[in-house]
Design goal:
The chain is about 30% helix and about 20% strand. The chain is built from 16 helices and 15 strands. A hairpin with a 5-residue loop joins strand 7 (about 210-220) and strand 8.
Length: about 425
């Protein structure tokens, strides 16, 4: 270990941190199973499922509140209608772009054949569904294509790398998720500059050529709780997807403070965001085709979530990280995701430091035009769950003036163990 590096960082005054609660729109569906049943019981939706049909139900890799319960309810209702359901992983190249890896991603969410009561058919094989108006081959999961019908299930939310009428949602589930690694790479080849145009173009080919029965769109509030569940027939999916994206954008959480010098993110992971850390929260966008109206001087990431299975997408958008994070990283699996998306910035390694203390200290020490003894620092568990966060003592006055912020504790010194890591 190079002691000169750590001598250079030196002893940095760590701010005392206070816990605060940020208040957002808390509209919530408290019984998602009942809401799913209501939506799928609508006559026009229910009539798409006929006895004897084999029906593929999509399951993605994003963290969705109550995901397994929602899927289980759909499976049960398909069975009740006399049809034969199975679930297909619909996550492009995630899970290391292997059938087993994608099963493991779903199992991490508790989405297993035993829980669902139906098979989970995982394969990276695709078939060509058609050709886009611009001449692109459009591919879809072979198992889903062979079913009598397909039910799409996905969360609708703003994307982290492009803007358009359809971002993350049902249309992207068809174009990218069901495309597996090969189909996703075909859609990504033109780069994120063109994704706002290509996602609906690819999805519309699948809508025209494949037996999509309906989609179930999920929108979450700023606390990552379900607030909208809406089923849409195949012909209505484009309009529903675009309308709910506008609603989802209005509900997005953000850090309710300005002039943040250092942001500390406890965990990154694909279960939190496609970018590992949502740039709509962290300000660190991996492409120039999406942006925010704020900036943060330095970003530090401390760890990777277990549910990310070593995918360290998002580390590259930070300034520092810990050795612990890098030791957990599955670089090759992460690179597969980057190659498929054509964006490498998210998998570049930031400055790697031996523990939490030095990862944070390096950020504090290198901030410009700030009083380091009064550093404005925010610590969040991840970019998906920012209802309760930690703020430095220097930000308490701002917190007290904001009616959307509730102070939960007095500032307290951060505690580190003998290895220099935070005591959580």
């Amino acid at each position: 270990m190079n002691s000169t590096l750590y001598d250079l960082i030196g002893t940095v005054s760590m701010p005392a941190m206070a816990r605060v609660r940020q208040t957002f729109d808390s509209q919530e569906i408290t019984d998602p199973e009942a809401a799913v049943r209501r939506e799928l019981s609508r006559p026009e939706i229910r009539s798409t499922i006929r006895p004897g049909m084999t029906i593929a139900i999509t399951a993605g890799s994003r963290g969705i509140a109550g995901h397994k319960r929602i899927l289980k309810t759909i499976v049960d209702m398909v069975k009740e209608a006399g049809a034969h359901p199975f679930v297909v992983p619909a996550m492009g190249s995630h899970g290391g772009a292997t059938a087993q890896g994608q099963l493991e991603v779903l199992a991490g969410f508790g989405i297993t054949p035993e829980y669902l009561g139906c098979p989970v058919k995982s394969s990276m094989d695709t078939v060509q569904a058609g050709i886009s108006p611009e001449g692109h081959p459009v591919h879809i999961d072979r198992n889903a294509h062979g079913a009598d019908g397909i039910i799409l299930v996905n969360k609708v939310k703003p994307h982290t790398a492009f803007r358009g009428p359809h971002e993350s949602g049902l249309m992207k589930m068809m174009a990218i998720g069901l495309g597996k690694q090969y189909g996703a790479s075909l859609c990504h080849q033109a780069g994120f500059k063109n994704m706002g145009r290509l996602v609906p173009m690819f999805a519309n080919v699948i809508l025209d050529r494949c037996n999509i029965l309906f989609g179930l769109a999920i929108v979450e509030n700023a606390y990552s709780r379900t607030c909208i569940l809406e089923a849409a027939l195949a012909r209505d999916i484009p309009g529903t997807d675009a309308r709910l994206l506008v609603k989802a954008r209005s509900l997005m959480p953000r850090i309710l403070f300005d002039d943040i010098a250092v942001l500390v993110i406890d965990e990154i992971g694909k279960n939190f965001s496609g970018d590992g850390q949502d740039p709509n929260v962290s300000s660190r966008f991996a492409t120039p085709y999406a942006s925010g109206d704020f900036s943060i001087q330095k970003v530090c990431v401390l760890d990777i979530s277990e549910k990310s299975h070593g995918i360290m997408i998002g580390a590259g958008c930070a300034d520092t990280c810990t050795r612990r994070l890098v030791d957990k990283a599955d670089l090759e699996a992460s690179y597969i995701n980057a190659i498929t998306s054509t964006v490498f910035d998210c998998v570049r390694l930031p400055m790697i430091l031996k523990n939490d203390y030095y990862a944070m200290a390096a950020c504090i020490r290198t901030c410009n035009e700030v009083d380091r003894d009064q550093i404005r620092m925010v610590r969040i568990p991840n970019t998906l769950e920012i209802g309760e966060i930690l703020i430095s003592e220097s930000m308490m006055a701002d917190a007290g003036k904001n009616p959307r912020i509730e102070i939960l504790s007095e500032p307290e010194p951060m505690k580190f163990d003998e290895n220099g890591n935070l005591v959580r």
